[in-house]
Each structure stands twice: as structure tokens, then as C-alpha cells.
Amino acid sequence: MDNIQAQMMRDELQGQEIGGWVIDGFLGNGKSAVVLPASKDGMRGAIKVFHRELVERYGKEMQYERILREKSLVGAHHENLVKILDGGECPATGYLYVVMESLPYKNLHECIADIPLAAVPGIISQIASAARYLEDRQLAHRDIKPENIVISDDYSKATLLDLGVLLPIGAESLTDVDQRQFIGTLRYSSPEFLFRQEENTIEGWRAVTFYQLGAVLHDLLMKKVLFEDFTDPFPRLVEAVKSEKPHIASEDHRCVHLANRCLMKQASTRLELVKWADFHLDEPLINPAVVARERVLQRQQYQRKAMGPQQPAAMATSQIKRMLEDACNQFETRLAAFFNGTGMFPLRMTHTSSEPANKKFQIYIQFERDDDLGLPCSLSVLIDVVLMDVNAGEPVFRATMASALAPAPISTIASRPDQSCAGDLPALLDGPFLEGALVGYLEAAYNAIDQGVALTPDVGFPLTCN
Questions:
Q1: Topology, domain 312-463
Q2: What is the model's pTM?
Q3: What is d(CA 242, CA 259) in angstroms, rounded to the nearest whole number?
Q4: What's the CA gap between 32 and 64, in Å, rounded?
């Protein structure tokens, strides 16, 4: 809709009733509708009235179906989701319309440069909560972006708008599945969504939602739109969505780490690394592992040359081998620095093995008995690291750990891993996972000794890190 069409609709509708709502002003317009203040039975709202010609051109049935989806939320309430008040087709005028609460605030895109860093965790937590509210009702938003989020003047309350693109998850419809029409915003779409390869399941749409939340978080932290340097020409932006890793830096390391995980190119990897609970950024840090992460030195900052959207399965064995060797060397270096720096652990023997065919390597650590440290038994720790994915040239790993206590060194640990973490190497090596698990196993060994547990030679007593 151009400005002339919007002006004509604005003038035509002043003082008119649409679905019983009396129009008295103008708020703005979008691609296919005007938004106007309106009242009915003492209620005030913002009515979106769709241009008749554009509706007919692009499909009245399609638009009406979307309006009914929005109308299904009449009476539903979430404090961070815009309230839908009414909607349908006006019998007197034939106009399609939706009425929502009127929110006199700017959207995030308009004021993003002014939003303080301290407000960012609360904003993203609130929008994630609204998105999960929709998911719990089997609905996917599909177009979460700064322009569809308004923020109160004090930056304390964010509200998710534009429910016209809602999709019932799992539903097969002519509009959204058979025609495979792209509904969303390219810049803020995950690769699988952009190329219409998303899975029409709860998990598939959750992966899309996580990506879009990460994109909004990127903009809040970086004070600029995602892929700003790749805007023109259009194919360049498409390629950036497909293969470019955004650079994100901020004093809020929790937010940076979450944004990076959300913006993983592969949906399956995204779901491995991100959970709904991760968006509770506005809650106090009470998890010891999270607290430990906040105490470590600032995460290593470096950039890697993008290798393209290769997947481990499609990579040459030599490439996988080099990645595994590099990761194993970094693990060994980090472990040595930790053990030597703390002085808490006995002398040790470290054995490594690599299986490029299975995209994994192992580090097996055997600690000697040390009566001076009060450890008259042998502690063993197994670290198993698997290459999960390559995200814009950066390898992503899953590390699991297990530990056992025995009278003497044992050749292997039979117990199942009790610790697990996934992410890039900085997340695994500099976060709380590795050091926390090692100290936890050492403490568990002392507890087992205090409790007088029976130790079995060659097998060992499995230790659990709390």
C-alpha cells in the first residue's frame, strides 16, 4: 500500500463504523492495511483495516484465515503479548479487520540505540515468554523482529505484536504448506525457514523462534540490525543468512553466549544448545555453574575465517581430523593450565585417542594416589568430545564426562557420563563446565572416601558430580 492509498482509506474511514468500531483518527499503515484508533461500547483499541483491492489480489480467503487465527486469541492474556479484541469481516462495508489493544510506545527498531544494556535481559526474557505462550497453544509467530516489538518508555515492559502471521503448528493448509509461501522477514529468518525447509512440528518451529529471538538479542546488544553490512544486493543478504556468522560482543557475556547459540545455522544444533529456560536472563544467578561462568575471565575474542556452511558428514576426513586434533590440543592445554594452577589435584597421566570416522576424541586422565592430599585411591576422569556441527566455519562440540574411584589406576570407566555440555570451544573451555566437573569429581571422591564406599579393582566406583 502506497501513501496515496493509505491517505484515501484514512479519509474514507473517519467517523465510520467497521464491525461496530467507530474510527476517529489515524495511527499508521503497513503493506496492506491502515491502523486507526477506534472505540466500541466504551472500549478503546487500534483497528487494522485491510485494503479491499490488495486483499482480493493476494487472496481474501488467505487473509480471512489469518484474521480468524488472531481472533482465536480474544480473551487470552499474556502480559507481553498484544491483546486481540475483535476481528472478522464487516457485513456493512465488506472490510476485513482486526482490533487489538492500543499501545502508545515505540518499537524496538525505532529506539534500539537508546536502550540501556541493563534492560536487555528483561526485554528478551519477556518476548521469549510471549513466544512460549504461543507455542503452548500450538502456534508459531514466524516473524519475531524488532519492528514487531514495542517497549515502554522506561524500557521495563516489552510487548510482541503482529499476530497476523500466526501458524497453527502441524496444520496443513493451502496457504502455508502446499504453496510454500514465505511468511516472515528475510533478515531475521533462520536458514531453514528462509528456504522453506523447516519442520512443521513443535521442535521445528521452536528452532525458528529461537533463531529469531537470537536475532533480536543481537540487535539489542550490537545496536544495529543483523547482517547490516550485507543488505545490498538482495542475494548477498540471502547468502549471509545462509553462511555468515554474526559478530556479537558485549559486557553481558550471558546474553552474548545465548545469542551465538540461537543463531546457529543448523536447526538441530540450535535445539541441542538452546532451551526455553536459557531465556530467563532477568533472574538472579543462583545456579553455581552459571555463577562460576560469570567469574571467569572474559571469553577469548577471536574471529575465524568462514569456511561456508559445511556439515561434518560432508567434510573430508582430513578436515575432520584437523578439527579434532586442534580441539584435543586446546583441551589438553586448558587442562594442564588448570591442574597446574590450582595445585588441588595429584600427579596424573593423560591419554588421548581420536576417531575421525566417528568425529570424536577422548581424553582419559588417571590421577595417582596421594596420601598428602588425603586421596589414598586412584581417581580417573574420561572426557568424550564429539564434533556435532560446523557453524559458519566454527566447529561445535558436545563434551561428556564420567569419573570413577578405584584402589589403583583402571584402564577404562564403565559408568555412563553424568556431565554434558555443548557449544564452541570457548564455551566448553572457558565456561564453568570443564573446571566445575573436575572439581566436582574431586569433591565426590573425598565424599566417597569419607563414606567408606567399597572400591572394586578394575571397575571403580562411579562418581557423580553435583
A1: Aspartate Aminotransferase, domain 1 (3.90.1150)
A2: 0.73
A3: 17
A4: 13
